[in-house]
Amino acid sequence: MPEKKPNLIVGLGNPGDDYKDTRHNAGFMVIDSLGEKFSIAVIKKKFNILFGRGFINNVEVILAKPQTFMNLSGPAISRFMNYFKIPYKDLIVVHDDLDFVFGRLKIKEKGGDGGHKGIRSLNDALGKGDYTRLRVGIGRSGTNMNVVNHVLGKFISEEKNTLPLIISEARKAVITILCNGAKEGMNKYNQKSLLINS
User: Fold this and answer.
1) Which residues of 88-118 are buried (b: 16+ CB within 10 A; e: fewer)?
2) Which helix (DSSP H) or strand (DSSP E) does residue 150 occupy?
3) Alpha-carbon distance 155 to 192, whole Å?
4) Residue 4 pLDDT > 80, yes or no?
5) CATH code (residue 116)
6) Please, are residues 106 and 97 in contact by the beta-carbon 8 Å criterion?
7) What pLDDT band is residue 132 in, cutting at 50, 70 and 90?
8) Which of 32, 105, 133, 137 suits 114 as a labelling partner, its CA being 20 to 30 A distant?
9) 198 inside domain
């Protein structure tokens, strides 16, 4: 029987202090939360990716945060997957999503990029989108602020109050996908009432 490869959980974001705690880095925040919860230090580096190996509820995983900018993350992830021989079915990608109000989570299997440049880069590099993703709603700006400034902006004070709960729920959603499958995750989280304004 061939050796079971670890599952790869990738959070999308932008590296560097300038982008820390911005809306576009929701994926990084979920990876950090998983690492803290399961004592997996995401400090090794290969192919422009910070990563750590460990176990989540007896399932071996690699937690990863690409260190390229968001719209260039695909090639690094592709090389990383090839190196560790990880199949698409064992890839979970966590990323922010403008199309969902702040606090909404949605699990999706396969599909297009929906305008998300990080997912577009990944799909282009892999040749298809055959993997599971967790979309973390960051909402759109209620002002005339342009999209780039909104996604690269910091969470406002009201959002910061709820953010720990949202990241915690997103972490639980990843664990459900990993241990029980995407379908169960969808049933549990996709129709859930919003965490705020519900």
Assistant:
1) eebbbbbbbbbebbbbbbbbbbeeebeebbb
2) helix 147-151
3) 22
4) no
5) 3.40.50.1470
6) yes
7) very high
8) 32
9) no
Whether residue 83 lies inside any domain: the answer is yes
Query: How is residue 17 annotated by DSSP?
Result: G
Q: Both tokens of residue 52?
A: 């750590």
Q: How is residue 55 written in tokens?
A: 């176990």
On average, the pLDDT of the chain sits at: 90
How many domains does the structure of the chain reveal?
1
Q: Is 92 within 8 Å of 131 (Cβ atoms)?
A: yes
What pLDDT shows up at residue 145? 61
Residue 52 has pLDDT above 70, yes or no: yes
Active site residues: 24
pLDDT at res. 2:
57
Provide CB contacts within 8 A for 34, sequence distance 6+: 9, 40, 56, 63, 171, 174, 175
DSSP one-letter code for 195: S
- Phi/psi region, residue 102 (left: phi>0; alpha: psi -120 to 50; beta: rest), is beta
